Amino acid sequence: MRILLQFPEGLKQYALRYAKELERSGNEVFISASPTFGACDLALDEARSLKADKLVHFGHAEFHHVDFNVEYVEYKMDASLALLPRSLDLLSGFDTIGLCTTIQHVHQLGDIKSFYESRGKTVVIGKPYGFAKKPGQILGCDVGSAASIDRQVDAHVYFGGGVFHPLGALLSTTKPFIAIDPFNGMMERMDQMREQYARRSRGKVLSAMGAKSFGILVTTKNGQHNMRLAELLKARIERDGMSSAILVANTFDFESLSNMREFDAFVNTACPRIAIDDCDRLPKPLLSANELMSLLSMKTELEALERARSQAAKQ
Ligand code: SF4
For residues 237 and 253, is the Cβ–Cβ distance under 8 A? Predict the structure, then answer.
């Protein structure tokens, strides 16, 4: 069988080992060297051009069905639970807590729940919906497991590495939010970041107020492609007398985008986290679709106000 292997960045270090195992069982094996951001980003074009019989995607659960033979190999990681006793200080006064994590640690949620229950807490684990598949699982773009239990809990606890995943859950919830990172031994309350990100978002919209031309980003990645939305946004921008074009890439290179100097601002329709995490990588405002809509309605209101003022001045 001709097999293409695809690994997320953290697992690329094991690629050769897996390739050799599959070769020993008689397969012809290739390894995708492209950056990989999730199961939303399957190496389908590479697999098709290699005429591969199968794509083996490591580290993520299925995102959505695609018309290709894909095997998903989830990667479970047993992280240390040694920080949990210390987290009780941060959770003091919160009787009911919600738990969330990434796919790598979902199998540990049972032990984490038992720990907190043994210390008198009531623990809620949200059901998955959207792209996440397991209770308590969150993705950077699907934090339903946390958002859906926001009303029921006094605080949220995220268990896992990095800031990317807890940030998404933080921005979609309203309660105190504690992140426990077993890899760097850190625990923190992240709540203050909500206001910080809300301010950043308002700042981006204000800085795009004078924009006359918009580049709308559309990716060819299987789980992030949204041409329909891009076309709607383009029509909406042009209805208001401004100019726009749809920019297509698999992975957007921010230097190439910066070279497109005719655009005054960019609008993202790809991974929703691009307009949150990557906006500092462009010299021009990089808006989400919602931020674009706020911008357009603010412009309309301001224009109406200007018209009313000039009419009043004439009278
Ligand atoms: S956050 Fe972005 S990269 Fe991650 S799964 Fe969602 S669309 Fe893919």
Answer: no
